[in-house]
Design goal:
The protein is of the alpha+beta class. It has one domain. The chain is 50% helix and 14% strand. The chain is built from four helices and two strands; from the N terminus they run H-H-E-E-H-H. The protein has a two-stranded antiparallel sheet with strand order 1-2. A hairpin with a 7-residue loop joins strand 1 and strand 2. The model has no long low-confidence stretch (mean pLDDT 87).
């Protein structure tokens, strides 16, 4: 599950990065920050995996550069924090399939 949310954040960051690369004029930094903030907000399960920042870059037309990186230690945490279902019952004469269906 964490992987799916991480992929969505990365796709959003890549789209925003391409948009900044294509920009021909200065973009409002506040709007960009809000757009960046929405990505982890929508996919909170994977938000901690990324370090995201806008760096000033006077050479580029938009005036900023998107810089992001994935934190590999987060992947270890996500792998160990995934949940699982453990059915527990006092009914001994049901099969495993009956327990799951119930």
């Amino acid at each position: 599950m964490h992987v799916r949310f991480a992929q969505r954040i990365e796709q959003g960051l890549e789209r925003l990065g391409r948009r900044l690369d294509r920009a021909r004029q200065a973009l409002e930094r506040g709007k960009l920050e809000r757009q960046i903030g929405r990505l982890p907000e929508r996919h909170a399960r994977a938000a901690g995996r990324y370090l995201i920042e806008l760096e000033p870059d006077p050479v580029r037309p938009p005036g900023v550069r998107l810089k992001w990186a994935a934190r590999p230690e987060w992947d270890d945490w996500a792998r160990h924090s995934e949940g699982c279902y453990v059915p527990r019952t006092n009914i001994r004469d049901w099969s495993v399939e009956q327990l799951w269906r119930t």
